[in-house]
From TrEMBL:
Keyword field: FAD, Flavoprotein, Oxidoreductase
Cofactor(s) needed by this chain: FAD
Domain FAD-binding PCMH-type: 36-215
Classification lineage: Bacteria, Pseudomonadati, Pseudomonadota, Gammaproteobacteria, Lysobacterales
Protein name per Swiss-Prot or TrEMBL: FAD-linked oxidase
Pfam families: FAD-oxidase_C, FAD_binding_4
PANTHER family: D-2-HYDROXYGLUTARATE DEHYDROGENASE, MITOCHONDRIAL
MF annotations from Gene Ontology: FAD binding; oxidoreductase activity
Oxidoreductase is among the record's keywords: yes
One Gene Ontology term from the biological process aspect of the record: respiratory electron transport chain
Family: Belongs to the FAD-binding oxidoreductase/transferase type 4 family.
Amino acid sequence: MTDSRLQSLQQAVPGLRLKSDPADLEHYGRDWTRRWTPAPLAIALPASIEEVQAIVRWANQQQVALVPSGGRTGLSGGAVAANGELVISMERMNKVLAFNAVDRTLTVQPGIALEAVHNAASEHGLAYPVDFAARGSCSIGGNIATNAGGIRVIRYGNTREWIAGLKLVTGTGELLDLNRALIKNSSGYDLRHLVIASEGTLGIVVEATLRLTDPPSPSNVMLLALPSFEVLMQVFAAFRERLQLEAFEFFTDRALHHVLAHGAQKPFDDVHPYYVVTEFASGDEASEAAAMAAFETCMDNGWVSDGVISQSDAQAAQLWRLREGITESLAAYKPYKNDVSVRISAMPAFLAETQALLGQAYPHFEVVWFGHIGDGNLHINVLKPGDVDYPLFVQQCEHVTELLAQALQRCGGSISAEHGIGLVKKGYLGSTRSDAEIAVMRGIRQVLDPNGLMNPGKLFD
């Protein structure tokens, strides 16, 4: 706290809580990536919109870069502060501000955890349907910054579809009230959607109004064992044709191996190469019969080798753990991650090409696959062997990512489906966006953040 800039910050924002202990700098200076050494100037923990505005104005005067920080569960380096930036942690701004029963909206501060939003909506007999495994630690502000998707996109879409309005503090300290929860608003550009997925480069989200919906209908969960990779899309088509799918997730035998080693319960006696966990609306005899018809069709065609359907909420949770526990079970291996997406119609060809590419590129590395097949999103995790130097490991993986980006460009896909670009994928943005698109994005950023202080180095330089 002896840095003169921090002394001037405390004078500019009286009562602002600051942290500068080495342990805090390390904790708040990074996300779930571990490729950069955290080196922030300090951690600011504002408690109000006015404090956020004052911090941003101070940053412009002092020319100090800012890194917004939520739950720091990101996987792209979007919340890393490695170059003396001031981290603005939103963890104190974590409250529900308002509920509107007529509009069916919930207004919250950005630091609130996704799980807390679920609970708040449930108290009013409604649901906020965006969901994923990190629900207990990720924040709504971070979800908005990356347009987070998760396990129920096939039914409900990404975060973008559920944001009715936003308040944004821009890179100059101005407060913008975007869309104000209107359903219809044709009064020019919808700046709300520019902010969503901008990764904190256009400003800091300080308030969000979320759309709520009816709680999901009763559902059931089925785990399927598949004999090969090639039948995956046939199984998806068979179930989508007959059922109202809530989720359709696949993972490999290696993914299951690590989750079981992490304490999950083994679902089958035999080991199968691929698995699908699917959730679907049920609650009546017709839906149960449709589920069994889909399963029998897949069995008759040799697309499915075995299966189990949940008989209770507890068993459904056990089956979901096999999918949701993958990321945590792999964390100790410092995996190199790719999070890619293609159109569902392009998925079969892309799967075949990618599987061949990775098989050739990583013969000596363990590759763990899982993904949201129902929305065209694949997660590819390459595990670092214990005897390989980490920088060399990353270098080898980066070479293959270049080839993967080229394959995505050929089929019109994206190098980042839901994790964001951040630092990790910045070099591959051109495989997803044209030069003209990137130039427009740069121009928008220049308008809202003329001094380039908002999360610099993320998305593009």
